[in-house]
Amino acid sequence: MRGTTVITGADGYLGRRLAAALLDDGDDELILAVRAASAAELARKQQRLAAELGSAAAGRTRCVAADVRHDDLLSDVDPGVVTRIVHAAAVTRFNVERDLADDVNVAGTVRLRAFAERCAHLRRFALLSTLYAAGSRQGDIAEEPSVPAGFVNHYEWSKWAAEEHLLDAADRLPVSVLRLPTIIADDDSGRVTQYNVFHNTLKLFHYGLLSLLPGDEKTPLSLATADFTVSAVTHLLDPAVVDGVYHVCPDPEQTPTLGELVDTAFTVFARDAGFQRRGLLRPVPCDRESFDDLLQAATGLRAGPLHQSLASVSPFAAQLYLPKTFHNEALRAAWPGYAAPDPHALTEAVCTRLVASKWGRRPEETS
């Protein structure tokens, strides 16, 4: 059935990939909601999206300004035509300030929920969340609303709170919470076009700027590609899919541990002549109390390399001491063609390309 899908954050890393996938997947019209402070900025973003989406976007997309911090977001959109909403707009930094996380990630979801309640023909409201909305919980994490047990950072808290606000409307809206893993590459080739704490931490290890390994080496880390994530989201937008929470991640049995990932990374690093010359050793595991002491000591060295190195890792580091296993039975049941990348092979491919490109600073060699 033909309809209209609204994608917030449509010019973001996942938003624009999801738009391209939906254009390929069906005949829905897309409303691409982007943050734009002026007509000129909106025109620039519209032009970039049109160029990236290609001819498939002609006549089937409309770019609108929509700031989730404002109560009148999507005021230019007729709610009567909207059949699906994908809420991808968010501040995703682990070190985001609480006020900003609250205004954008939490209150922004509430504002979008209010718009959704005016959409008489809505068939799906999907919130892109994170596996780490589980916060400080440990052990098995099921695909269900999370019971709070504290949070490592404001980002995690804000995504949990956003989930709660949306799930509170489950009696009157067709809602799905899609918890995403850490995305470390565009696709199975290991190509990286958006860097995050995963890549930045590997960089610190490769250049000898961090000799300690925060975390329990047995902690599983759920990793995936943008291709896998977008494919899962498109399948979960089907109106036949049951409402609820889905973990968009590889099977628990596939999930590598922190120690295994570091071993893979250093195996790749050892092939690099520059790394060999530096003679660097594998980082030494560090217990949580010792790491907390190191962070406190580094606060007095704000201009030094130690503080700078730790500052990029510390907002997420506490999660590495909180082992948790994310189950994905609901995802598998809703997606018959489920196929996740091999995280071990993916990690090796990513590390290989990071070293070859010096973390994006030079073009990779092509054969």
Task: List the main descriptive attributes of the protein structure presented here.
367 residues, alpha/beta, seven-stranded parallel beta sheet, two-stranded parallel sheet, 12 helices, 16% strand
Helices and strands, with pairings:
Layout: E1 4-8, H1 13-25, E2 29-34, H2 39-53, E3 61-65, E4 82-87, H3 98-116, E5 124-130, E6 139-141, H4 154-167, E7 175-180, E8 182-185, H5 197-206, E9 212-214, E10 223-225, H6 226-236, E11 244-247, H7 258-269, H8 273-278, E12 284-286, H9 288-298, H10 305-317, E13 324-326, H11 329-334, H12 343-357
Parallel strand pairs: 1-2, 1-4, 2-3, 4-5, 5-7, 6-13, 7-11, 8-10, 9-12
Helix pairs in contact: 1-6, 3-4, 5-10, 7-12
Overall spatial form: globular
Radius of gyration: 21 Å
Q: How would a crystallographer describe the biggest sheet?
A: 7 strands, parallel
Proportion in helices: 25-40%
Q: State the end-to-end CA separation.
A: 45 Å
Widest beta sheet: strand line-up? 3-2-1-4-5-7-11
Describe this structure in words.
- The protein has 367 residues and is an alpha/beta fold.
- It is built from twelve helices and 13 strands.
- It has helices at residues 13-25, 39-53, 98-116, 154-167, 197-206, 226-236, 258-269, 273-278, 288-298, 305-317, 329-334, 343-357; strands at residues 4-8, 29-34, 61-65, 82-87, 124-130, 139-141, 175-180, 182-185, 212-214, 223-225, 244-247, 284-286, 324-326.
- A seven-stranded parallel sheet has the order 3-2-1-4-5-7-11, sandwiched between helices.
- Helix 3 links the parallel strand 4 and strand 5 (124-130).
- Helix 1 crosses helix 6, helix 5 (197-206) packs across helix 10 and helix 7 (258-269) runs parallel beside helix 12.
